[in-house]
Amino acid sequence: MTGPRVPSRLSLSYGIGLALLLPGVAIAQDVEGGTAPATEPEPPTETRTVVTATRLPRPLRDVPATTVVIPRAELERSPTLTQDALVRTLPSVATFRRTPSLVADPTAQGLNLRGLAPSGVARGLVLLDGLPFNDPYGGWVFWRALPRLGLDRIEVVPTGGSALYGSAALGGVVQLFSRPITGPVLDADVSVGNLGTGFVAARVADRWGRVGASLEVEGLTSDGYRIVPENQRGRVDGDTPSRHVSAQARVEAEATDHLSLSARAGVFRETQNGGTQYTVASVDLAWFAASARLRTDAAGAFELGLFGRVQHFAQDRARLTPDRNFEVRSALQDVPANDQGGSLVWTGPDLTLGGTHVLAAGVDVRRSNGRADELLFPTAYTPTTLYARTTRGTQVSGGVFVQDLYTVSPALEFAGTLRWDTWRNFDGHLLESLAGGATPSTDFEPRTARQLSPRLAARVRPLDWLTLRASAYRAFRAPTLNELYRPFQVGTVLTAANPDLGAERLWGTEAGVEATGPRGLTGRVTGFWNVLDAPITNVTLATPLPDGTTRQRQNLGRARVRGVELGADWRLSRQWLALAAYTFVDPVVTRAPGQPDLVGRQLPQDPRHRGFLAVTFDDPSIVSVTAQLRVFGPQYEDDLNTRGMGGAAVVDLFVSRHLFWKVDAFGAVENLFDRQYLAGRAGVDTLAPPFQARVGLRLRDVFSESSARAAPGAPGR
Q1: CA distances (Å), 595 to each of 442, 506, 558, 591, in order?
Q2: 638 and 49 in contact (C-beta within 8 Å)?
Q3: Which DSSP category does 642 fall into?
Q4: Where is average pLDDT lowest: 71-75, 438-442, 611-615, 701-705?
Q5: Quick check: 706 pLDDT over 70?
Q6: 294: which residues sit within 8 A by CB, 6+ positions away?
Q7: What is the mean pLDDT of the chain?
Q8: Three-state SS across 529-598?
Q9: The TonB-dependent receptor-like beta-barrel domain covers which part of the protein (predicted)?
């Protein structure tokens, strides 16, 4: 790879799970023996800044919260093909199911941090340069809509973040940052692989004085694989092909020495097949965002952000015979949605009062609107048979926060944050069409709710090699329009919506220690304890509904999610780096009114045990190789813990070699030993991805003045 090397992964007390899996995670420390890249000096790791944990630029080493950074070099060396697969390599990050977005539509790709009640709806917030990227209707994430060539780094804060970010940040925040616009520059990737996989991406950027612009495009095609196990497969079961194309343009301008402006727009198109003729889904998405930042000497800095999006999600559902030899369409569903919003954040100048205070305050607002049009194909018709249904609703939310970062001394810092939110659901409506001609309708009562979210964190460094961190917080998540109004089906299991859902609320705490030793050895331990009140869960009904629905979304009562993250990494030499991590999560239902059988059960869709091991050899004059082992324990598909799925150990591999000029050749393998394991058991068993391999070429910095490569042993590798 051409260009400067950057630390592979920066970790800030990421506890027992410094996401050791990606090639070369770097810690918040200097690495002995490292040399600066040939093209530009690499700043010491502890001077690097992160933004997400405090909503302000802060040195990584000083942030009083668990934070992980996956920098640009890690993105390039990862063997993963999609963004969700990339973030899932961190030990405390998961999506709802084990299948990646390559073979699963976005409704199964909800972000889950630290085992906090996984579901198709994300319990973590995804940001793109500070603005929300979660779906406005369902809360899920269109991971493939974010071209990887345009990303500079990913920051992950796996702890309650509502005090800064409001509802969607119940379990934490994942933020993606765009690459700085320099130029002229042209980057391109092209690769092919088994399973009919083809990938192409390009990015071009340039700068003209105070103005810069970039354009990124990406396309992917895959034939997928037979997702149903052979012993359950019938004549209707085939591969799971998918396609996507995306494009994003961005413009930045320094209007004056104190005022900077930026704008971006993007489009995305995705089609997927779930393995049969009538299990298909598609997404069409277009979005726009703009921001302005004003810096003043006396009053501090002001940053304004605006965004908007329109999209259309469509899904077909199927009804199959028990032997899976015959299939008919059971439903068509179209979900158009849109949202608009904005935020204004003020950061004050430093204040001196018993130390240094940095005050920040902000306000944000968001409006989401969506509709679900559903056409049903029942097995038989009577005058009361339901054959069409339309639901709609609108949600408006807003919040205001204030934060004080109080540095008593270099060894002691506190962060106090308080946020107040309100949201209102209105215009909720259900229209049903019956075969006999009747069209009953229901208007749902508007509902308004409010929430206060505090957070207090501290960072103590009694010795230069020892850092202690602790925090306590309260967070919440309001139900999405999808949960309130849209029913859905996975396999043969139908789940009903629930317009009476309330917000989920979380109380939690975490504490961690990070220590650096001789010879580049670093260890971390972080423990966390969360209590989730009224989590929205797909509950199995004692008696099915008239249309055959067997589950319904309900506020479940209470769950306790506690655990510990352990991590260690060791730079054996300039070329060799070894990393290991283990995450234990104990998610248990502790109270379930009306569902006593659920008490003591493990929350579904997340294993208690996850482990990672990665070994990297990186010498640009020879080859760069990363081998990683991902291990995860058994988990359950359902809330009653009757449908178990075994654990697995999966090996991935990435190899790259410089060829000539600015061209590298690379190879990537996921599931090297073709380990077969279950991804879901929703009526029919489904398999996780098999052996996937691809080879390709990379072109980097075509128009740059230098083609110098990073020196071996650059910090973090």
Answers
A1: 28, 21, 12, 9
A2: no
A3: -
A4: 701-705
A5: no
A6: 258, 259, 301, 302, 303
A7: 87
A8: EEEEECCEEEEECCCCCCCCCCEEEEECCEEEEEEEEEEEEEECCCCEEEEEEEEEEEEEEEECCCCHHH
A9: 267-672
| Torsion, Cα of 129, 142, 343, 291 (10° steps) | 50
Q: Which residues pair with 586 in a beta bridge?
A: 562
529 pLDDT higher than 90: yes
Please give the model's pTM, rounded to 2 decimal places: 0.89
Q: What is the CA radius of gyration of the chain?
A: 25
State the DSSP string of 283-323. Answer: EEEEEEEEEEEEEETTTEEEEEEEEEEEEEEEEEEEEE-TT
H helical segments located in 650-703: none
Name which residue leads in pLDDT, 27 or 661. Answer: 661
Rounded to an integer, what distance in angstroms lies between the CA atom of residue 9 and that of residue 5? 12
Contacts of 428 (CB under 8 A, 6+ apart): 391, 392, 393, 394, 443, 444, 445, 446, 484, 485, 499
Residue (of 667, 666, 660) closest to 698 by Cα position: 666
- Between CA 677 and CA 691 the distance in angstroms is 12
CB contact at 8 A, 25 and 11: yes
Please write down the HEC assignment for all residues of 431-457: EEEECCCCCCEEECCCEEEEEEEEEEE
Among residues 201, 93, 218, 204, which one has the least CA distance to residue 145?
A: 218
